[in-house]
Amino acid sequence: MFVSTDVDVIVIGGGPVGTTALALLGRAGHTAIGLEKDREMWPTARAVHFDGETMRTLQGLAVADRFIGVTIPMKHVDIVNEADEVLVHAPTDRLGDQAWNDHISFHQPDIEGLVREIVETSPGVELRCGVTATRVESTDTGVEVTTLDEDGTERTLRARWAIAADGARSEVRRALGIETDKYGEDAQWLVVDGQLVDAPGYETDMIQFARYSRPALWLRLPGSRVRMEFMLVPGDDPDEIVTPAAVERISRGILPADKFTPDRQAMYTFRGRIARQWRKGNVFLAGDAAHQAPPLFGQGLCAGIRDVENLAWKMDLVARGIADDSLLDTYESERKPHATFWVETAANQAVGIQTLDPRVAEGRDAFMRAHPEASAVPTSPPLGPGFHEGDERAGRLSIQPILADGTRLDDMVGHHFLVVADRSIYSELPAGIKAALVEDGDTVTLLDPLKIDQILDATKAKAVVVRPDHYILGAGDTAADLERLVRQIPSIAHAATLTVDTH
Hints:
Elements: E1 7-12, H1 16-27, E2 32-36, E3 49-50, H2 52-60, H3 64-68, E4 71-73, E5 76-81, E6 86-91, E7 104-106, H4 108-120, E8 125-129, E9 131-139, E10 142-149, E11 154-164, H5 171-175, E12 180-196, E13 206-210, E14 216-220, E15 225-231, H6 244-250, E16 260-275, E17 279-280, E18 283-285, E19 291-292, H7 300-319, H8 329-353, H9 358-370, H10 409-413, E20 417-421, H11 423-427, H12 431-439, E21 443-446, H13 449-459, E22 463-466, E23 472-476, H14 479-488, H15 490-494
Parallel strand pairs: 1-2, 1-11, 2-8, 5-13, 11-18, 20-21
Antiparallel strand pairs: 3-7, 4-7, 5-6, 9-10, 10-11, 12-15, 12-16, 13-14, 14-15, 16-19, 17-18, 20-22, 22-23
Helix pairs in contact: 1-4, 1-7
């Protein structure tokens, strides 16, 4: 039995991952308090890239159209060598299988501000800024979080769970004694963001410059904004390298001092890290607190949004007594291998891009010419073991069809389990299972071929059950398969209907 709590969840960190967690919890009808130590929102950009899966999460918050207004699709990606030879060219201006563009650029304050607006209008959740979490303790009945306001007032908040989304230098992670594993080699880089006016920049939206003289990155952002990142090399003067003249020099004239106005210049470290433990008691790590990757595939923030999407629906089921607390153990087992894939992939790509040895670069260039597919953005992997059947079809992200009238399927399904099946398979289900599907408020069943055939074809199955986070619980080809899958849906397994004869 849990003691009285102030809220269901305390979220530590008010960046885009933490605020998305608040929004997702609020959508599910739960109470949550977010704690952000800074009074004002961070004014400059850090993350600049979403993928289609992330946009699908925002779609589920009913604000995707507003996000479209402050983002641009990324049309193409290149890898270029020292001689300005394009080693790899990848067109990316197309809708992906999530019903959104797979590569979308943005200015983080625009995105973060919109997510905060969602939180402000969501009943039961709030973000408290200027409040620092000084102690986080997991107890037998939940968590206790001690906070310190800017005026020196100390308070204690109690909740069933806490999500630590407090960044790469997570104080919560350190206080819990959780160490991280290192992937790849660390390297110091300079990032500059700003307005480029009356200068062409590069036509390509995203370029990885595999230059052995100085590796660099280029990204075109909404409006007149651009970003360039430059690896620091031996002999650089940290004070001189950030001057307008130096930025013009190391950008090879792409960012002229009289046409580029920076609003952010910062030294940071290309690093790959994975926390060894993502759950300790009733405290969960998410976002950069759990994983950090070099930015070469733009998956850092995407991975953080996946974290809280995975957590939110599981917390909802456990909080409502529909699932056992052990369901939350599948958060780390599912998400950690998935995030590790992206960290390893980005770290391996960084090794090739960052070399300063001309001979190594020559061999890399020859390999990329012969195997351009090896440097393309990889296909997202399946989840690790957890709440899915674990075969070649389960644990993977389901597609989102766009219907004939332009409706994206999620707008019809909502935040529910989705059962899609060939009518002939469905017709063979026991009457009790059919009744359970009809009565269950957590599940939507679709049999119309116009709505579901794309999902069945993509999965190569006649029946598929999709979780609320859009990952496939399982797929099958017979009525027996479908019945087995339906019985795994927590709300149906919990229902009294399944305790009686279903034949």
